[in-house]
Design goal:
Radius of gyration: 16 Å
Structural class: alpha+beta
Organism: Xiphophorus maculatus
CATH superfamily: Nucleoside diphosphate kinase-like domain
Oligomer: single chain
CATH topology: Alpha-Beta Plaits
Cofactor: Mg(2+)
Shape: globular
GO molecular function: ATP binding; metal ion binding; nucleoside diphosphate kinase activity
Number of domains: 1
Pfam families: NDK
Strand order of the largest sheet: 2-3-1-4
Function: Major role in the synthesis of nucleoside triphosphates other than ATP.
Largest sheet: 4 strands, antiparallel
Strand content: 15-25%
Length: 162
């Protein structure tokens, strides 16, 4: 089968993930750099908003960490300033986005990853990304309403997917 007779990936093959630039990333002016990295990789932005989340909202977002000693401080910090919340779409995006982010602790992150290149401290690791498909769905639903999504097809799609 030749290149031109292949159809691009169907929407059924696509995953969505939630990515948020945390208050430290916003304050450092890194939203554009992070968007650039996801666009350059070939992922499609389908929803985005600049918000200051309440502490209650952050408690819902990080509910799976409620028994951790840092939970209260994390929720307070994440509600201390604006967050750039986004939903990205692409094949295997949850797994690939986590690789792009690097380890939670920037000191353990490889050069080339967002945290490996742009962070020093675990408490200021600039970005959140869903860690599983189930968490991605929950986080996307927590942050975005259905009418906030834009359905579009980038002209580059045929050059990204077989």
């Amino acid at each position: 089968m030749g290149f031109y007779s292949r159809m691009p990936a169907s929407s059924a093959d696509m995953e969505r993930t939630f990515i948020a630039v945390k208050p430290d990333g916003v304050q450092r002016g890194l939203c554009g750099e992070i968007i650039k990295r996801f666009e350059t990789r070939g992922f499609k932005l389908v929803a985005a908003k600049f918000v200051q989340a309440s502490e209650d909202h952050m408690k819902k977002h990080y509910l799976d960490l409620k028994d951790m000693p840092f939970y209260a401080g994390l929720c307070k910090y994440m509600s201390s300033g604006p967050v750039f919340a986004m939903v990205w779409e692409g094949q295997s995006i949850v797994k690939l986005a986590r690789m792009m982010l690097g380890e939670t602790n920037p000191a353990d992150s490889k050069p080339g990853s967002i945290r490996g290149d742009l962070c020093i401290n675990i408490g200021r690791n600039i970005i959140h990304g869903s860690d599983t498909l189930d968490n991605a769905k929950m986080e996307v639903d927590l942050w975005f309403k259905a009418e906030e999504f834009v359905n579009w097809t980038p002209c580059s799609q045929a050059f990204l997917y077989e």
